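hi got a favour to ask and not much time before my train. below you get a single protein, a line of residues and a line of whole numbers that encode the local backbone shape. could you go over both lines and see whether the tokens make sense for that sequence. a few lines back from you is plenty, here it is:
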Amino acid sequence: MLLAIVLCPFGSYAQKAKFGHINADEVMQALPGIDSVEKGVRERQAELQATGEAMADEFTKKQAEYEALGSKGVSAAVIKIKEEELSNMYQRIEEFKIAAQQDLQEKYQELLKPFHDKVLEAIKEVATENNFTYIFDTSILTYYDQGEDISAKVKTKLGIK
């Protein structure tokens, strides 16, 4: 008996809740200018790749110099210094690769943010105007069967045909 009384308020709330769903990624891809994000990331990638290639070329040059030392009768101390130099250079190249990946990810997020914010604002406006309690992003849902697809309303709000 107590269980039925406790569950009643939740039952009436669930009946009043209005659910909607949208694939925000799909809407974002339809936004004018979104291709500038990919272009900006490609440009940054080209810059980083050029730097990485210059580092690799220098490493190859230093490695060839090191390998030539063996035939010149150079002291063990000089060889050890050159080995450490190569090792440090290799380590810097590996660190650069990691930093470059992070930099590209940050650049992508930076360029995408205005588009993301625009879509999120349109979703909020549509949700408020149409009295939705919840809007779910279907790109991250495993299963959904009910609720209204608000994609068309959001696209209209954003001026997308």
User: Anything to note?
Assistant: The beta strands are 19-22, 134-137, 148-149.
